[in-house]
Amino acid sequence: MTVLDRLRHRLVVSCQPLPEQPDDPMRDSAVQARVAAAAVLGGAAGIRANGPADIAAIRAAVEVPLIGLFKHGTAGCVITPTAAHAEQVVDAGADIVAVDATDRPRPDGRTFADTARAVHGRGALVLADVSSLDEGLAAVDAGADAVATTLSGYTAGPVPPGPDLDLVTRLAARLTVPVLAEGRYRTAAQVAGAFRAGAFAVVAGNAVTSPLWITRHLLDGVARAGMGPDTVDARGAG
Ligand SMILES: CC(=O)N[C@H](C=O)[C@@H](O)[C@H](O)[C@H](O)COP(=O)(O)O
User: What residue owns the CA closest to ligand 1's atom 5?
Assistant: First the structure.
């Protein structure tokens, strides 16, 4: 069975500390390796991880297919923006390299196709992270082995609360390569919805792997329900 076949109709768990939280205590490769091992025990068929150190630690801890990326910078084309970043991801042990395939400029002025060639040259596969149908179609022409909806909602304007199931549907209708649903999958209903929309696999991140994000999300929901600490105090409850 190929690496991609092993992900068919399965859940991939993205093990990454929160990028906007430099002091996230989960920012530790040994911790991420444990989180990945727990996710695999829970049924994840693959792991997605950022940076050579985390990728190497996770590679040593689990045997499932590993999607690696290398985030560089904080704005624009961040996910594995150059061939040099991609080569480090493969060398750290990733089977598949996730690469930004939006049309935003890359720090070295080269193209997605250049990175795809470098990844294939090292014997790994390329997952194109896109935000639109057109980017997905262009990425496949440029050599992508699979396409993920990872960047939908992150290239302009406010980030929407839920996943982009419509983009999954449109990509799956047009592409013959696997389409991975990724980005803000938080519930079983959303994951099931992505499979129904034609997803080959679904990637879930913070809702599984980040106690910091899960705690904030839970408390935001309590506040939205009008029962945050201030409201409860004002009611004189408890
Ligand atoms: C936009 C971007 O840079 N996404 C990144 C891609 O690798 C990660 O920061 C996310 O954790 C991952 O996509 C899954 O995240 P969630 O399931 O929590 O949305």
Answer: 150
Spatial separation of the C-alpha atoms in residues 48 and 12, rounded to whole Å: 7
**Pocket of ligand 1, beta carbon within 6 A:** 14, 16, 19, 69, 79, 150-151, 154, 182-185, 203-206
Residue 80 CA to residue 75 CA, distance in Å, equals: 13
**Model-level pTM greater than 0.80?**
yes
**Which structural domains are found in the chain, ordered by start?**
5-235 (3.20.20.70)
Give 113-160 pLDDT, tens digit per residue.
Answer: 999 999 999 999 999 999 999 999 999 999 999 999 999 999 999 999
ipTM above 0.90, yes or no: yes
Q: What is the pLDDT of residues 159-207, one digit of tens each?
A: 999 999 999 999 999 999 999 999 999 999 999 999 999 999 999 999 9
Atom of ligand 1 at shortest distance to CA of 16? Answer: 11
Phi then psi for residue 32, to 5 deg, are -65, -35
Q: What angle do CA 82, 87, 92 make, to 5 degrees?
A: 130
Which one of 16, 47, 187 would you pick to mutate in the ligand 1 pocket, going by the greatest count of ligand atoms within 8 A of its CB? 16
